[in-house]
Write a structure and sequence with these properties.
Elements lengths: L9 E2 L7 E10 L9 E11 L4 E6 L7 H12 L7 E6 L4 H6 L23 H16 L2 E6 L5 E9 L5 H14 L3 E4 L8 H7 L3 E9 L5 H17 L15 E4 L6 E3 L4 E5 L6 E2 L4 E6 L9 E4 L4 E7 L3 E2 L4 E8 L3
Parallel strand pairs: 4-5, 4-6, 6-9, 7-8, 8-10
Antiparallel strand pairs: 1-2, 2-3, 3-5, 7-9, 7-16, 10-18, 11-18, 12-14, 12-17, 13-16, 14-15, 16-18
């Protein structure tokens, strides 16, 4: 990253102004069909008086839809007199990817959630990542990054959270996790530096990531969890002037205890799963079978779990290649 370089992105909204504003972040983009064009990244802000800032983001991966629907509905319904402080909403964070319905950008193949801290003089995705970390997250006290399984995976409604060295920051994140009230929460080890949770840590912003459904669809159940969870976080941290929210249900807390919680395909073929989401599985249990109809006389290959745990994520497409994630497990954690 080029340090000390200002972002080329400009905002149509004034982050200091009161009331509701909607518009675009303008990312200059010169191409054959538009020499002096710009990429329109939609953004909204609702501000009412002094107070903390909540940053709500979806479309980090463009084929994950529950979060995009949740934030779109909030932009349309949240009135300034109903809140206290400032709420910034970025429903299609990686706009080129989200507009195309792809996990990564069709412009530079950039994966936004592998591009932090970004580069203001880099590719389109790197520029977006830099602006999110160094402008939006820098302004925010709290943040929720809304994900789903996308086109290739499906998640149980789960909050992902990390651990901070600062006790006060850690306590805030745990409170956000519990108040969001998803059926499941999963603690992960410290993330790589290039993901959004690490960007938030660098900016001392309390952030949780949520995984809500997937399969390239909008799940009614997951959408309900997402909408109610965001409302509870807003109410719990003083953003709603007259909070009236559904109480948080109990959350089963898990952790990613080792790399063995992820099960991958070892070869190419068609995957026949033998377990479903929400199943408790044991080490050495058969997870599924990879078939090769190109050579149907070749024996099919069993895939077995390497550890025990709860299936919180499952691959959607039957077609697999070596290295594709088939299942993601969580193991119970008491905190």
């Amino acid at each position: 990253m080029v340090t000390g370089t200002r972002s080329p992105i400009t905002s149509e909204i004034d982050f200091d102004a009161e009331g509701q504003q909607v518009g675009f972040l303008r990312l200059p983009h010169s191409v054959h069909r538009s020499a002096y064009g710009w990429i329109p990244i939609p953004i909204a802000q609702i501000k009412n008086g002094d107070g903390p800032t909540l940053f709500l983001m979806s479309g980090n991966h463009g084929d994950e839809y529950e979060g995009q629907v949740t934030l779109t509905k909030l932009v349309q319904t949240l009135e300034p007199d109903a809140i206290r402080g400032r709420i910034i909403l970025l429903p299609m964070a990686n706009y080129p990817a989200a507009n195309a319905g792809l996990r990564t950008s069709p412009i530079d193949d950039g994966n936004l959630n592998r591009s932090f801290p970004g580069d203001p003089e880099g590719s389109v995705t790197q520029i977006i990542a830099h602006y999110i970390e160094h402008v939006l997250l820098e302004m925010a006290d709290f943040a929720i990054d809304l994900h789903a399984g996308g086109s290739s995976l499906h998640y149980l409604p789960t909050v992902l959270f990390g651990e901070r060295k600062d006790p006060a920051e850690n306590a805030t994140i745990l409170k956000m996790m519990r108040k969001f009230g998803a059926p499941y929460a999963c603690k992960f080890a410290r993330s790589r530096a290039n993901v959004c949770s690490s960007a938030a840590r660098r900016q001392s912003t309390a952030l949780i990531t949520v995984e809500m459904g997937g399969s390239g669809t909008v799940s009614m159940d997951s959408l309900k969890v997402a909408e109610e969870g965001v409302q509870r976080v807003m109410a719990s941290f003083g953003f709603l002037a007259a909070p009236d929210v559904v109480p948080a249900p109990s959350t089963r807390i898990l952790e990613i205890s080792s790399a063995d919680c992820f099960l991958y395909a070892a070869e190419e073929g068609l995957f026949e799963p033998r377990v479903e989401l929400g199943a408790m599985v044991q080490a050495e249990q058969v997870a599924g079978v990879v078939h090769t109809p190109q050579t149907p006389w070749k024996p099919s290959t069993e895939v077995r779990f390497k550890t025990s745990g709860l299936v919180i994520c499952k691959r959607v497409p039957a077609r697999v290649e070596r290295g594709d994630c088939l299942f993601h497990l969580g193991t119970d954690l008491s905190i």
